[in-house]
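Case study.
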Amino acid sequence: MANHSLDTLFAALGDPTRRAIIERLAHGPAAVKELAAPHDMALPSFLQHIKVMEAGGIIATRKEGRQRMCRMEPNALIPLQGWLEWQRLAWEAQIHQQKD
Amino acid sequence: MANHSLDTLFAALGDPTRRAIIERLAHGPAAVKELAAPHDMALPSFLQHIKVMEAGGIIATRKEGRQRMCRMEPNALIPLQGWLEWQRLAWEAQIHQQKD
DNA sequence: AGGTTAGTTAGGATCATGGCTAACCATTCA
DNA sequence: TGAATGGTTAGCCATGATCCTAACTAACCT
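After joint prediction, the assembly is written out as follows.
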């Protein structure tokens, strides 16, 4: 649940590796190894991205045997959509005030 | 217009100072000085944030006399909304596939 | 002209990010 | 039991982000 900041969320999405992970997990859970496969990168480096996203509340992970399974935290991105929508509304309101 | 990357856009919004600038500009244009006022920060530091956002296509600026006026680039954030929406849809589609 | 205002340029300090290798642990399988 | 697999920890390094001060330029005001 945790109150994850927009800072953390936006920063997490600023990295293409991490967005790719989200794009993959949106289609269902996967183990670290599988997630890492397309990402020409050493496992420890990759794991850091996983940790960033877990810390940011974007994904959740748990150990199953020797694998670590990862899944989306589906509500995590809502604050971002909210903020963007808020800006859009403010902008449009401001447009409509521009009379004569 | 430019094809600004999600990388750049998300990264730009990862900083609270820059989000505050956007929040302010959503209500109408402003000069650098005015934007900087609430941000206990030296002007050169602040200017860098302005440059980051201009480079990212989020705002546009032009000199007017000795001031530099800044305004929103209203379509800049659309790719972000698009990406977020895309993820949401992928997630929901995946949910519905979970039968029996 | 001289001073004030707004911005700009240059250069430096500090810290976080994102990558690596090497070595280790825990689980599974033959 | 021993080897392979999947992950983890530790430590290193290069780069870039974010802040600063000092000094300069360009407009505007009296």
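Observations recorded in class. The longest strand of chain A covers residues 59-64. Helices of chain A lie at 6-13, 16-25, 32-36, 43-55, 78-97. We will return to this complex in the next lecture.
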